[in-house]
Automatic annotation (TrEMBL), chain A:
This is V-type proton ATPase subunit. The gene is LOC113699124. It holds the Pfam family vATP-synt_AC39. GO terms for cellular component: proton-transporting V-type ATPase, V0 domain; vacuolar membrane. InterPro entries: ATPase_csu/dsu_sf (IPR036079), ATPase_V0-cplx_csu/dsu (IPR002843), ATPase_V0-cplx_dsu (IPR016727), V-type_ATPase_csu/dsu (IPR035067), V-type_ATPase_csu/dsu_dom_3 (IPR044911). It is found in: Vacuole membrane.
Automatic annotation (TrEMBL), chain B:
The keyword Kinase does not apply. The keyword Cytoplasm does not apply. Essential component of the vacuolar proton pump (V-ATPase), a multimeric enzyme that catalyzes the translocation of protons across the membranes. Required for assembly and activity of the V-ATPase. Residues 97-126 form a coiled coil. GO terms for molecular function: ATPase binding; proton-transporting ATPase activity, rotational mechanism. The chain crosses the membrane at residues 422-445, 466-484, 547-565, 585-602, 631-654, 755-776. This is V-type proton ATPase subunit a. GO terms for biological process: vacuolar acidification. It is found in: Membrane. Belongs to the V-ATPase 116 kDa subunit family. It is a multi-pass membrane protein. It comes from the Eukaryota. Keywords: Coiled coil, Hydrogen ion transport, Ion transport, Membrane, Transmembrane, Transmembrane helix, Transport.
Length: 351, 818
C-alpha cells in the first residue's frame, strides 16, 4: 500500500531502521577525513580511528600496522554490523539484505576463478575475498575447468544460480570470458534486485529504483569505456547492459556504438543528471570518472536517509560504509607510501 | 531579612564556590605536578588545544607508548583468562618501577609469551594431526575390513606374511610422506581417507558426488574425540571419511575438493599389519607429544602467573600515565617553550591543597623555578560541584538525573533527602512490607564494604547505589504503615483499644447499622475497627485524598520559597517582586485556601462539601454558602482570595518584561556605539554585565518567555495539585492489592484443612508479596515519587542546566575502566 508504510513499517523493521540510522551517524565526517589526511604514519591513523567507532576493532592490533590490517578490521566491523542486522531481520527485509551481498559474491567468484586460472594459491585468494560475499563452497570453485562445470559443481547451490542461466557455455575459462561472465552475472543480478524492489513497492521501490538505475548506468558506461578497443562486438556489448535505468533503451543503443571516450561523453551529456558528472572532466579524460561517479553515488545514497520507512537506508548504509573503507584504504596507502600529495585524489567525503 | 542572611550556610544547598585558575609549570616538573594533581583530584583542566587533532599534540608519542603498553597488558590479561588463571595481586608486591623499565619488561614478557604460544601452537598442530591420523586409522580400517570382508581373507594373509618380514624402517617418516592412495588391489578401485569438520560433511559429500558424477562411494563415521580447533580455541566434532573411486582424474579432483573444504587426508595402508604398526607408532608419538605439550603449558602458566601477580598494578600504572599525558596534552606551551600553561577550575577550598601539591612537585623534581598558580577571571559559568558523602550521593544522583544544577543554584537534593522517601512511603504505607524493605536495605548496608569492592550486575549495582535511599524509604514506610495501620493489610491494635464497640454483646448488627463510639479516639493512626466495615473505603479515600493535597500544597510552596532564595542569592529583586510574590498569592489563594478548609473541616468535624465550596467559589462567588459554611466571614474571604488570585495573574505576566525593557533602554541611552575591544575584558568580568544584556535582550522573546512561564504556572497550579492525588491513588492500589492477596489467597487457602493446599496458598502469597508488592509496587511508587520531585516540585525553582565538575583524578580513572 503505497504511502501507508508509516502505519505498519515499524512493526517489523522499525528497530533495524533505528539501528542502521545509528550506524550511519557513526560514519566519518569531513572533519575526520581532514584529520586523517594530515596523519604522518599509520599509527596516527590508528590513533585517530580509535576515537571513532572503529576503536574497539583496532585497539588490540600490535604497533607496526599494515594497510591491509586496517582495512581488514574496518571491514570486519561492517560485516559484524551486517550480520547483526541480518539476524534481526524478518522477511522481506532479510531477503533484501541478502541481495546486497550478491554483488560481492559475484566479485568473489570472479576473483577465485581468475586466480586459479593464473595458478594462484586458493587460500591466498580466499583471504582477498570480500567477507560479505562468502559462501560455503567458495573454495571449490578452483576445481571447475569451464563455465558449465562451474555452474554444475558449485554455483547451483548459491543464490547466484539463476543469474547463470544466460552464460552457461562450455567454453573454457579465460580472462575475457570471465570478464563477460562477471558483467552478465551483474546484469542479471541488478535486474533481479530491481524487480525485487519493485515488488516490495512503496518508498523502497521508489528510492531503490533510483539508486539501482544509477548503478546500472554507471556499469553501462564502465563497460563501454573498458570494451573500447577490444574484440567485443557491438551486439555483445549491448547484451551486457542492464535492461533498466535512465539510459535504457535509447542511451544503450548509442553507447553500444561508441568508439572512444568523447563519444561516450556525447551520449551521456544528453542526460541531465549525468551532465554534471561529465562537466567536471576535461575532454579525453577518463581517470577521474570513477571518482566523479562515486561522488554522485554518495550524494544519492545520503539522500536515501532523508526519507523514512523504507529499506533503501540499509543499502545506502552498506554502500556508504564500503566507500568509507575504500577512503580509509586510500588514505592509509598514501600515508604508508609517503604519497601524501595524492591523498585527496580518490577520497570521497561522505558528509 | 537580616535573620535569613545570617543563617548558617548549608553545605549541600549551594554548590562549592569555584574559581578559574591558571598554572604555569616549568617543563621539567610538569609530569610530576600533573600526577600529584591527579592524586589530589580537585582540579578540572580545560582543553586549550581544542582545535588540534589528537596526534598533533605535544605528548602524542608518550600517549601512543602508553596505548601500546596497555595493549600488551590487555594481551596478558586475555592470555591469563584463556589459561584459566586468576590475576591476583601478590601480597608482597615489588617496589615501584619506572615507566621505561616497565615498557621493556612488558616487551620482554610479550616476546616470551608469543614465542611460547607459537611453539605450543606448532606442537598442538602436530598433535592434532596425529590424533586425526589415529582416528582415521581406526575408523577407516573398519570400512576397509567390512568392504572386503570375506573374499580377500586369504589374500590378506599372504600379504601379511610378506610384510611381516620387513623391518619397517620407513614407517617413521610415513607422516611426512605424500598422501598415497592404497595400492589398487582389485579392479582399479582406489580410496582417499581423511577427516573433516562434522558441519561440512553434507556439502562435502554432495560436492564429491557432483564432481565425480556419482562414480564414487562415500563412507563416513563420527570421530570418537573432539579436536581442538587452533584458530577458535574450541573443541570441534569431526567426521572420518573414506572415499572410494577409480581413475586418476577423479583423484586430483577429489584432492582439490578436500583441500577446498579444509579436509585433512591421511594415508591408510590397506594392509592390516602395517596399519596396526602405524597405529602403535602414532599412539606412542601421541603420548610423547602430550607430555611435551603439558610441560609447555605448565611453563606458560608459570610465566603467566608471575605476570598475573603484578598485572593489576601495571594496568593502574599505565592507565595513570596515560591520563597524565592526556592532561599534559591539554596544556599549552608558552612563548619561551620552557613552560606549560594550563587553565582549569578548582573549588576555592582546594586552593591551598593544590598549592601544596604543586610545591611538593617543584621540590621533588629539583626544579629551579616554582610553579605559578594564580586565579583568573573566566567568561563562562563555573562547573557545579557538590561535596556529597555516601549517604547524600544517591539523593544528589536523583536530582542530577533530571539536570545538573546551575552554579550555586539552590539544590533540591537537600530536601529530597527527606521528602523523597516520605512521599514514597505515603504510597507504600504498610509496615509489614516496610520491614521487609528495611531488612533488605540493612543487609546491603551491613555488607557495604564487601559489596563496594566487587563487581555487581547492573540491577544489583542500582540497588546497592541506592541503599541509603532504600533505608529511608523503608523507615518512612513503617511510619506511614503504622499511620494507615496496615501490616500486610492486616490492622493491629498496637496503640491500645479501638474507640468503637458493638451496640450489644452479640455484635450482630455491626456490619449493617454500625458501631458506636465508646472511648477517646485511637491515639495514633487509623482505628483498626474501620477495617472490613462498610464505610472503610470512603473513609480511607477521603483521608488519603486530603492528605495528598495537603502534602502537595506544602511541597509546592516549598518550591516557590526556594525560588525566592534563589532570587535573593543572585540579587534579582525583579524575580522576587514580579514572580515570587504573585506566585505565592496565586497558589495560596486557591489551593492554600483549600488546605485551610481541609484542616478546619478535620478539626471541627463539619459536614461541609469541600468540592461544592471550591467549585462555587469560582462559579458564583457571591452566593450564600448555606450548609457548607465552615467559619464566619467565609463568603467575604472567598471573594477577596479570588480577587487576589485574579490580580496575581497579570502581575506575574506583564511587569517583568516591561521593566526589563525600560532598564535596558535606560542603561544604553545615548550609547549607540559598540564598546571598544580593550574594555571588553572588564565588562566580561561581571556575570550580569551590561554587555550581555545588550547582546541578548529582545523584548518580544522576553515577553513570550514570561508568558509561557506564567501560563505554565497558572495551569500548573491546578494540574500539579491534581497530580499529587497520585499519592492517594497508589496508596489505595497498594492496600487493595495486599488485601486481595491476603484474603483471597492466604485466608482462602487456610480455610481448607488440607496441608498441601495451605502450603500452596502460602507459597502463592509469599511470591505475590515478594514480586508484586515488594518489587513492582516499590518500583512504581519510586517512579511516582521521582515524578513528583522532578516535575511538581522542581519546576517551581530549578533550572538545572549547569554542568558537573569533573576533576582530573586518578580515583575516577579506575572506575571508568570497569
Amino acid at each position: 500500500m503505497y504511502g501507508f508504510e508509516a502505519l505498519t513499517f515499524n512493526i517489523h523493521s522499525g528497530y533495524l531502521e533505528a539501528i542502521v540510522r545509528g550506524h550511519r551517524s557513526g560514519l566519518l565526517t569531513a572533519a575526520d577525513y581532514n584529520n586523517l589526511c594530515q596523519c604522518e604514519t599509520l599509527d596516527d591513523i590508528k590513533m585517530h580511528l580509535s576515537a571513532t567507532e572503529y576503536g574497539p576493532y583496532l585497539q588490540n592490533e600490535p604497533s607496526p600496522l599494515h594497510t591491509t590490517t586496517i582495512v581488514e578490521k574496518c571491514t570486519l566491523k561492517l560485516v559484524d554490523e551486517y550480520k547483526h542486522m541480518l539476524s534481526q531481520a524478518t522477511e522481506p527485509l532479510s531477503t533484501f539484505l541478502q541481495y546486497i551481498t550478491y554483488g560481492h559474491m559475484i566479485d568473489n567468484v570472479v576473483l577465485i576463478v581468475t586466480g586459479t586460472l593464473h595458478e594462484r594459491d586458493v587460500h591466498e585468494l580466499l583471504e582477498k575475498c570480500h567477507p560479505l560475499g562468502m559462501f560455503d563452497s567458495i573454495a571449490t570453485l578452483a576445481v571447475a575447468q569451464n563455465m558449465r562445470e562451474l555452474y554444475r559443481l558449485v554455483l547451483v547451490d548459491t543464490p547466484l544460480a539463476p543469474y547463470f542461466s544466460e552464460c552457461i557455455t562450455s567454453e573454457d575459462l579465460d580472462d575475457m570470458n570471465i570478464e563477460i561472465m562477471r558483467n552478465t552475472l551483474y546484469k542479471a543480478y541488478l535486474e533481479d534486485f530491481y524487480d525485487f524492489c519493485q515488488k516490495l513497492g512503496g518508498a523502497t521501490a521508489e528510492i531503490m529504483s533510483d539508486l539501482l538505475a544509477f548503478e546500472a548506468d554507471r556499469r553501462a558506461v564502465n563497460i563501454t569505456i573498458n570494451s573500447i578497443g577490444t574484440e567485443l562486438t557491438r551486439d555483445d556489448r549491448r547484451k551486457l547492459y542492464s535492461n533498466f535505468g535512465l539510459l535504457y533503451p535509447y542511451g544503450h543503443e548509442e553507447l553500444a556504438v561508441c568508439e572512444d571516450i568523447d563519444q561516450v561523453r556525447g551520449v551521456m551529456e544528453k542526460y541531465p543528471p549525468y551532465q554534471t558528472i561529465f562537466a567536471k572532466l576535461s575532454y579525453g579524460e577518463s581517470q577521474m570518472l570513477d571518482k566523479a561517479f562515486y561522488e554522485e553515488e554518495v550524494k544519492r545514497l545520503c539522500l536515501a536517509f532523508e526519507q523514512q520507512f523504507h529499506y533503501g537506508v540499509f543499502f545506502a548504509y552498506m554502500r556508504l560504509r564500503e566507500q568509507e573503507i575504500r577512503n580509509l584504504m586510500w588514505i592509509s596507502e598514501c600515508v604508508a607510501q609517503n604519497q601524501k600529495s595524492r591523498v585527496h585524489d580518490s577520497v570521497v567525503f561522505i558528509f | 531579612m537580616e535573620y535569613l542572611d545570617n543563617l548558617p550556610p548549608m553545605d549541600l544547598m549551594r554548590s562549592e564556590k569555584m574559581t578559574f585558575v591558571q598554572l604555569i609549570i616549568p617543563v621539567e616538573s610538569a609530569h610530576r605536578a600533573i600526577s600529584y594533581l591527579g592524586q589530589l583530584g580537585l582540579l578540572q583542566f580545560r582543553d586549550l588545544n581544542d582545535e588540534k587533532s589528537p596526534f598533533q599534540r605535544t605528548f602524542v608519542n608518550q600517549v601512543k607508548r602508553c596505548a601500546e603498553m596497555s595493549r600488551k597488558l590487555r594481551f596478558f590479561k586475555d592470555q591469563i583468562h584463556k589459561a584459566g588463571l586468576l590475576p591476583s595481586p601478590h601480597p608482597a608486591s615489588q617496589p615501584d618501577i619506572e615507566l621505561e623499565e616497565l615498557e621493556m619488561q612488558l616487551a620482554e614478557h610479550e616476546h616470551e609469551l608469543i614465542e611460547m604460544n607459537s611453539n605450543t601452537e606448532k606442537l598442538q598442530q602436530t598433535y592434532n594431526e596425529l590424533l586425526e591420523f589415529k582416528m582415521v586409522l581406526q575408523k577407516a580400517s573398519d570400512f576397509l575390513v567390512s568392504s572386503r570382508s570375506n573374499s580377500t581373507v586369504q589374500e590378506r594373509e599372504m600379504v601379511e606374511n610378506v610384510y611381516s618380514n620387513d623391518d619397517y624402517a620407513d614407517t617413521a617418516s610415513l607422516l611426512e610422506q605424500e598422501m598415497q592412495p592404497g595400492p589398487s588391489v582389485q579392479s582399479g578401485v582406489r580410496f582417499v581417507s581423511g577427516i573433516i569438520c562434522k558441519s561440512k560433511v553434507l556439502t562435502f559429500e554432495r560436492m564429491l558426488f557432483r564432481a565425480t558424477r556419482g562414480n564414487m562411494f562415500f563412507n563416513q563415521a563420527a570421530a570418537d574425540d573432539q579436536i581442538l580447533d587452533p584458530s577458535s580455541n574450541e573443541m570441534v566434532e569431526k567426521t572420518v571419511f573414506v572415499v572410494f573411486f577409480s581413475g586418476e582424474q577423479a583423484r586430483t579432483k577429489i584432492l582439490k575438493i578436500c583441500e577446498a573444504f579444509g579436509a585433512n587426508c591421511y594415508p591408510v595402508p590397506e594392509d592390516v599389519t602395517k596399519r596396526m604398526q602405524i597405529t602403535r607408532e602414532v599412539s606412542s608419538r601421541l603420548s610423547e607429544l602430550e607430555t611435551t605439550l603439558d610441560a609447555g603449558t605448565r611453563h606458560r602458566d608459570k610465566a603467566l602467573t608471575s605476570i598475573g601477580f603484578q598485572l593489576v598494578k601495571w594496568m593502574n600504572m599505565v592507565g595513570r600515565e596515560k591520563a597524565v599525558y592526556d592532561t599534559l596534552n591539554m596544556l599549552n606551551f608558552d612563548v619561551t617553550k620552557k613552560c606549560l600553561v594550563g587553565e582549569g577550575w578548582c573549588p576555592i577550598f582546594a586552593k591551598t591543597k593544590i598549592q601544596e601539591a604543586l610545591q611538593r612537585a617543584t621540590f621533588d623534581s629539583n626544579s629551579q623555578v616554582g610553579i605559578i598558580f594564580h586565579v583568573m577571571d573566566a567568561v563562562e559559568s563555573p562547573p557545579t560541584y557538590f561535596r556529597t558523602n555516601r549517604f547524600t550521593s544517591a539523593f544528589q544522583e536523583i536530582v542530577d538525573a533530571y539536570g545538573v544544577a546551575n552554579y550555586q543554584e539552590a539544590n533540591p537534593a537537600v530536601y529530597t533527602v527527606v521528602t523523597f522517601p516520605f512521599l514514597f512511603a505515603v504510597m507504600f504505607g504498610d509496615w509489614g512490607h516496610g520491614i521487609c524493605l528495611l531488612l533488605g536495605a540493612l543487609v546491603l548496608i551491613a555488607r557495604e564494604r564487601k559489596l563496594g569492592t566487587q563487581k555487581l550486575g547492573s540491577f544489583m549495582e542500582m540497588l546497592f547505589g541506592g541503599r541509603y535511599v532504600l533505608l529511608l524509604m523503608s523507615i518512612f514506610s513503617i511510619y506511614c504503615g503504622l499511620i494507615y495501620n496496615e501490616f500486610f493489610s492486616v490492622p493491629f491494635h498496637i496503640f491500645g483499644e479501638s474507640a468503637y464497640k458493638c451496640r450489644d454483646s452479640s455484635c450482630s448488627d455491626a456490619r449493617s447499622i454500625g458501631l458506636i463510639k465508646s472511648r477517646d479516639p485511637y491515639p495514633f493512626g487509623v482505628d483498626p475497627s474501620w477495617r472490613g466495615s462498610r464505610t472503610e473505603l470512603p473513609f480511607l479515600n477521603s483521608l488519603k485524598m486530603k492528605l495528598s493535597i495537603l502534602l502537595g500544597v506544602v511541597q509546592m510552596n516549598l518550591g516557590i520559597i526556594l525560588s525566592y532564595f534563589n532570587a535573593r542569592f543572585f540579587g534579582n529583586s525583579l524575580d522576587i517582586k514580579y514572580q515570587f510574590v504573585p506566585q505565592m498569592i496565586f497558589l495560596n489563594c486557591l489551593f492554600g485556601y483549600l488546605s485551610l478548609l481541609i484542616v478546619i473541616k478535620w478539626c471541627s468535624g463539619s459536614q461541609a462539601d469541600l468540592y461544592h465550596v471550591m467549585i462555587y467559589m469560582f462559579l458564583s462567588p457571591f452566593e450564600d454558602l448555606g450548609e457548607n459554611k465552615l467559619f464566619w466571614g467565609q463568603g467575604v474571604l472567598q471573594v477577596i482570595l479570588l480577587l487576589c488570585a485574579v490580580v496575581a495573574v497579570p502581575w506575574m505576566l506583564f511587569p517583568k518584561p516591561f521593566i526589563l525593557k525600560r532598564l535596558h533602554t535606560e542603561r544604553f541611552q545615548g550609547r549607540t556605539y559598540g564598546l571598544l575591544g580593550t574594555s571588553d575584558m572588564k565588562i566580561d568580568d561581571e556575570p550580569d554585565s551590561a554587555r550581555q544584556h545588550q547582546e541578548d535582550f529582545n523584548f518580544s522573546e522576553e515577553f513570550v518567555h514570561q508568558m509561557i512561564h506564567s501560563i505554565e504556572f497558572v495551569l500548573g497550579a491546578v494540574s500539579n495539585t491534581a497530580s499529587y492525588l497520585r499519592l492517594w491513588a497508589l496508596s489505595l492500589a497498594h492496600s487493595e492489592l495486599s488485601t486481595v492477596f491476603y484474603e483471597k489467597v492466604l485466608l482462602l487457602a487456610w480455610g481448607y484443612e488440607n496441608i498441601i493446599i495451605r502450603l500452596v496458598g502460602l507459597a502463592v502469597f509469599a511470591f505475590a508479596t515478594a514480586f508484586i508488592l515488594l518489587m513492582m509496587e516499590t518500583l512504581s511508587a519510586f517512579l511516582h515519587a521521582l515524578r513528583l520531585h522532578w516535575v511538581e516540585f522542581q519546576n517551581k525553582f530549578y533550572h538545572g542546566d549547569g554542568y558537573k565538575f569533573r576533576p582530573f583524578s586518578f580515583a575516577s580513572l579506575t572506575d571508568d575502566d570497569d
